[in-house]
Amino acid sequence: MGWQKKILRVDLTNGTAASEPLNMEWANLYLGERGLATKYLWENMDPKADAMGPGNVLVFATGPLTGTMASTSGRYAVVTKGPLTGAIACSNSGGKFGAELKFAGYDLLVIHGKSATPVYLHIVDDNVEVLPADDIWGTSVWHTEEWVKQHHQDPLIKVASIGVSGERGVRFACIVNDLHRAAGRSGVGAVMGSKNLKAVAVRGTVGVKVYDPERFMEAVTKTKALLWDSDGRRSLTEHGTNAMIDSMQEFGGLPTRNFQEVQFGGVDKINPAAMVETKPSGHRNLITNKACFGCTIACGRIAHIDKEHFTIVNRKEYWHASGGLEYETAYAFGPVVGIDDIDALTFAGFLMNEHGMDPISFGVTLAAAMELYEMGVITDKDTDGVPLNFGNAEALTIMAEKTGKYEGFGQILGLGSKRMCEKYGHPELSMSVKGQEFAGYDSRALQGMGLGYATSNRGACHLKHDTFAEDMEDQTGKGKARPCKDSQDVTAMVDSSGVCLFTTSSWGVEEFQQQIDAACEGDWTVDRLREVGERTWNLERQFNLAAGLTAKDDTLPKRLLEVPAPSGTAKGRVSELGKMLPEYYKLRGWTADGVPTKKTLTRLGL
Amino acid sequence: MYKSLLIDPEKCTSCLQCEMACSFEHEGVFNPAKSRIKVFEFEHGRTAIPYTCTQCDEAWCMQACPVDAITMNRVTGAKEVNDSLCVGCKVCTLACPFGTINYNQNTGKVIKCDLCGGDPECAKACPTGAITYVNADWTGYERMRTWALSS
Q: Which of B11, B15, B19 to mutate to test the interface with A (most CBs of A within 10 A)?
């Protein structure tokens, strides 16, 4: 058990939904969530299909540990072909939606086709309806969630939905659940929008059982204590992920003004210390911390904006609390666009959640637009009269709202940085890999991160590998291929289990093994779990190759390969990707062209 | 000496470990929909409040039950539902001013907190100490202490 052994298949073209048994042969090879969803995607669609067309398939997937008492068990993944990259997209989210889907009795939700009119999916255990969404189409995520709960007279319904940005095909639109958690990256919300699917609303009362309850609870209690006692957990609880901003500033790996610099003078105004500082007005940004389902870390920040701040002084509807700054939002609305106004950053974060957009891609796209503006390539005429200078906090919030509502220059920003920079004849200004924008780590200071960005199957991503310790220790590319490859495999396994990546601050594969083996029948060993990760990684790669991507796409922008870091501990360095990549391909058992060899595929049963 | 569940919403992160522990103990399944303790979230998660039966001395549910299916556990003080007597009439759910006794459609009986026989699983599962199990006479002790220090 652990699995519900049942999936829900929805055909939006015909407006039908039916459950079917989970393919246990695949579950035994791919475990769940990310890995299993990748297998279902691979078997159910042509990788060459248009990401925004009816041939794309959208999979919501839970893992065997989702909805159990394992710490951080609230995770689910959305796997589909990404409209930002043309590669496989795999976006992971917390909150309470994923566990609810599992409680309704489903491991996966596989969505095919395209509805002729706007619809939403309403799931209450075995009762599944495809309902008209006319009343909520054209409205925000926040409105949609409230409407669904009121309409069905059930405050316990969990909702995952898109905003106008997703409906209109903003390439980095995300799927938001529980108001401020999101399957954030790669434009999975635009895929949902292209299918005319506004929301998935779930209420589950079936619950989740495990294979060996007694052994499972022993493992859970032990690993829970281990996590609780760790420094990593303590820091995440107390400071949130934004603790990273001070480390990156000191190290000189904090991308600033579209990666022209690697340190930002305004960090002290947007770091965790600034979040808890009481201003002369009596306002303090941070209210408290909150957890996703089952999570004993609770890294989530709940914050509010100063009522006197220009962004909301006349907009009472934003005077409430909501999800606050995390590291990536702080970076994407802060250093990379040169802004240090914490209230503006927080408001931009609210807008991302309300309208359903990925803050990283939005921020880095805006940063590219700001560079184009300062170069004179675009002017006030292009930007609806808004001066897009680096550091302009008003421009940040205006553009966030315009993009969310798909208005004016927001429609151009909604293309993502790659398409936007190509449109204006400066593709080199897009700070992205495979079309997906970088997270808040500079590849010149963190070499392993650069390799991870270049090889991540969903485009630039900081969450698909972990070479952080190695990168902080040594700033050359030497010896980074091995930890990059190994951590990619472990991460893929963790993402297939149903728990959060942040547990790896104290859990090794052994801790996962103890919990997974007790939750699921079938003798799950450490080696077998590592192999699940490696198999998943290679299948994702197969998908991308079949979609038309090649080794040429495993690269970084010239700025990181040729222009040395101007300051910090990596001053004078560029990314050593050229040295790391061949070593990485070799370790993977891929050809020099980045194609898995027959031997590798056979070994992994692919 | 009886003990009581003491709930401090300030410490609650809304992780729902308590709801899972409760349903696992009573139903053998991780299922918040069948939990006797519920966490309520307000204003985008600004506040989260766990809520369950306070085990009233003169319990309305117990008084209202026409078949005496609800009795007091002499050891823990908990008001417990005897499933073999409960007829599912739901009068107790109407009588309880706090809503902490509820009908379970799957079994046709009512469910409520029984303090797990004196070792409440919710308190053990709570990672932040938002739910503790303390001397029933001194549920205010910690709060008194905090105020004593600050005044």
A: B15
Q: CB A207 to CB B33 under 8 A?
A: yes
Position A335, amino acid: P
- Quickly list DSSP for A340-373: --HHHHHHHHHHHHHHTB-HHHHHHHHHHHHHHH
Confidence of residue B151 (pLDDT cuts 50, 70, 90): confident
Other beta carbons within 10 Å of A562: 11
Nearest CA in chain A to B14: A291
pLDDT in tens, A303-349: 999 999 999 999 999 999 999 999 999 999 999 999 999 999 999 99
Digit-coded pLDDT (tens) for A269-308 = 999 999 999 999 899 999 999 999 999 999 999 999 999 9
Domains in chain A (CATH in brackets) are 6-203 (3.60.9.10), 237-433 (1.10.569.10), 445-603 (1.10.599.10)
Q: Which residues of B touch A289 (CB under 8 A)?
A: 13
Using the predicted structure, report yes or no on whether residue A12 has a pLDDT greater than 90: yes
Number of Cβ pairs closer than 8 Å across A and B?
Answer: 84
Chain B CB contacts of A292 below 8 Å = 15
Percent of chain A with pLDDT over 90: 100
Instruction: Name the residue facing A207 among B21, B30, B44 (closest C-beta).
Output: B30
Beta carbons within 8 Å of A282's beta carbon, 6+ residues apart:
none
Q: Which stretches of A273-406 are assigned E, i.e. beta strand?
A: 286-290, 300-303, 322-323
Q: Structural domains in chain B?
A: 1-52+116-151 (3.30.70.20), 55-112 (3.30.70.20)
